[in-house]
Specification:
The complex is a heterodimer. By secondary structure, chain A is mostly helical. Chain A has 15 helices and two strands. The termini of chain B are far apart. The chains are: A mainly alpha, B mainly alpha.
């Protein structure tokens, strides 16, 4: 019963390429939706386990994208290794953010927003490495493995589904480990947790690192899928905004919520919002985000979980 | 070279006074409610666009827009307060996300109404240059500086002498104790948001008269204001003012000595240095932040 939503999502994930495999528009939307899903998952991990709100995940996304693209194009690194390197690069740049961890909640959120701006400016100014605002292209696409062309829409889609599933599994493992227990206790009272000998700052640092790693991985994937990068795109605030809305909409305290939320929000943005308002379509996302915080801060999956939890309690009584 | 440095020092001081107004708005609502209003930069921008509306429709001096700008930013500020009030759980973090969302809404609303064009004042009086010794400034910059100083003096007087101002300080320093003294914190919070709206309206109009505005400017303003509050430490008005001037001067120096693309970067670097080495701010905070 508990795994029902997960199975349902898996079934939809398998059904989509069967139904729309030939339709490159739909598959393209799904691929981008899954990219957002990966970032939303990483954002929710930081928010739920680490208790930190980040407005700067675009920094990790962009760093992952550029690291992977540059390493594969200029140093001939095979794309799978470059993807991993991209993720590591993003994790490395989160190390630069560690001093911000000494700031509490709202100050941390703003510090990370400031960091995202720094990285965007750096990418624009370091023209010899990134090509600057002229953009950067001609880096290798995703390879063909075992006869499956990963650079095709269906291939990328399959790879992304697997990656999102792996990241969700990692998230679940962390949540259920003793680290997850310590972090939950920390959310209740950070001081009390320190007293019993938990290094709260270290745990938070690990969550930031893991979240940055996952975000960088999906940033790198996205770069090799679309094969073009420019600072305004790779570090675009959308890569911070969409995952936040997705995670809040789906329920950032759940694991499936951000994933399902990301695909839904992305489709809504592309199909409905951009159709209604070609310019300024993000206003609808803003209204949605504000509405969710005010009406249902636990998100769709959060409401569902709470109801089933209540039902279980009733059944037990 | 020396003249260039003098000039950038001077220009930096002038623009810094506007940063101070923006930062004080954020600091005021943070003090009263322990909530950072991420939409504050957008409020300032909204006021700047009101100045544009008045100037382009009537041809009056943009400063004539302050009443209109205040009505608009005041209403939006109060709406933001009422929405934050409705948050029941995890208010500290949820209010951040909420005000972030409001910022997105305002930015895009401005984009929808005014398009993404860059706007600036066309007033010949404000754009006229005057020289003070070896340095030059636009009259608009000087006017903005003087008005900012006056507003800050007014804020200082309000916080020190008026009942509401003193109540804001009381609630900022100890909410529970102030409630025991018969202060209704909700009224005080509302007052803080209205005054933040006034500060934003003046700052926005001043910004329009001395610089250019565009819809994407909001988050950058919020970040600058935040940097100023971090530099200043837990706030006194003179501390915020000095920190804002420091940011303005550092930015202006960077443009002169290096490149204008690095202007925003240097503020962040300053911010990081303070975080690393003086986590309580430059001007001696009493308590740990947050």
């Amino acid at each position: 019963m508990r795994s029902l939503p997960a199975l349902l999502i898996l079934a939809v994930a398998i059904a989509v390429p069967i139904a729309f495999g030939g339709n490159s528009y739909v598959m393209g939307l799904m691929v981008s939706g899954l990219i957002v899903a990966g970032v939303a998952l990483a954002w929710a991990l930081l928010g739920n386990l680490g208790g930190m709100v980040s407005f700067g995940h675009a920094a990790f996304f962009g760093v992952g994208a550029y690291t992977s693209a540059i390493l594969s194009a200029k140093f001939g690194l095979p794309v799978p290794l470059a993807l991993l390197a991209g993720a590591c690069g993003a994790a490395l740049c989160s190390v630069v953010m560690l001093p911000a961890l000494r700031l509490s909640g709202p100050y941390f959120a703003l510090a990370i927003l400031a960091y995202a701006h720094i990285f965007k400016i750096l990418a624009t100014e370091a023209t010899s490495i990134t090509g600057g605002s002229a953009g950067f292209q001609r880096f290798p696409p995703l390879p063909t493995i075992l006869g499956l062309d990963l650079s095709s829409r269906v291939g990328s889609y399959g790879l992304l589904v697997i990656l999102v599933a792996i990241c969700a599994a990692i998230y679940l493992a962390v949540k259920r480990s003793h680290v997850g227990t310590a972090l939950r206790a920390m959310a209740e009272s950070e001081d009390a947790t320190r007293v019993v000998g938990v290094n709260a700052t270290l745990l938070k640092a690990w969550m930031l690192l893991l979240s940055a790693f996952i975000t960088g991985l999906f940033g790198a994937m996205n770069a090799h899928i679309i094969n073009f990068l420019e600072p305004d795109y790779a570090f675009s605030a959308s890569w911070s905004i969409l995952p936040i809305i997705a995670a809040i909409f789906g329920g950032y305290r759940t694991i499936l919520g951000p994933v399902a939320g990301a695909v839904l929000i992305y489709l809504f943005d592309q199909i409905v919002a951009k159709e209604l308002l070609p310019v300024g379509h993000e206003i609808l996302l803003g209204v949605l985000l504000a509405g969710m915080i005010l009406i249902a801060p636990n998100g769709l999956f959060g409401m569902f979980q709470r109801k089933t939890a209540k039902g279980a309690a009733h059944a037990a009584a | 070279m020396l003249e260039l440095l003098q000039q950038s020092l001077f220009s930096g001081l002038l623009v810094g006074s506007v940063y101070a107004l923006v930062a004080l708005g954020i600091a005021l609502t943070f003090g009263a409610m322990k909530i950072i209003n991420l939409a504050h930069g957008e409020l300032v921008l909204l006021a700047a666009y009101m100045a544009y509306v008045i100037e382009s429709r009537t041809g009056w001096n943009p400063y004539a827009a302050i009443p209109l700008a205040f009505v608009v930013t005041g209403i939006v500020s109060v709406v933001i307060y009422l929405l934050i009030e409705r948050i029941r759980e995890h208010r500290e973090l949820n209010s951040l996300i909420l005000t972030f969302a409001i910022g997105i809404i305002l930015t895009n609303a401005i984009l929808l109404v005014f398009a993404s064009d860059v706007r600036s004042t066309g007033s010949p009086f404000l754009q006229d240059a005057i020289s003070l010794g070896s340095v030059y400034a636009m009259k608009g910059e000087i006017t903005a500086f003087i008005i900012s100083l006056a507003v800050m003096a007014g804020l200082w007087w309000w916080l020190k002498n008026s009942w509401y101002g003193r109540a804001v300080r009381a609630v900022s320093s100890n909410r529970d104790a102030s409630m025991l003294m018969g202060i209704d914190p909700r009224r005080v919070e509302l007052a803080a948001f209205i005054v933040a709206g006034i500060l934003a309206s003046v700052a926005g109009v001043a910004l329009y008269t001395m610089s250019v505005v565009q819809p994407a400017l909001g988050p950058g303003l919020t970040i600058k204001a935040f940097i100023v509050t971090v530099l200043a430490g837990v706030g006194s008005i003179p501390g915020v003012f000095c920190a804002a001037l420091l940011l303005g001067v550092t930015e202006a120096m960077t443009v002169t000595l290096a490149s204008s693309a690095l202007q925003e970067l240097v503020g962040m670097v300053l911010f990081l240095l303070v975080l690393f080495f003086m986590p309580n701010g430059l001007f001696g905070a009493r308590a740990r932040r947050g």
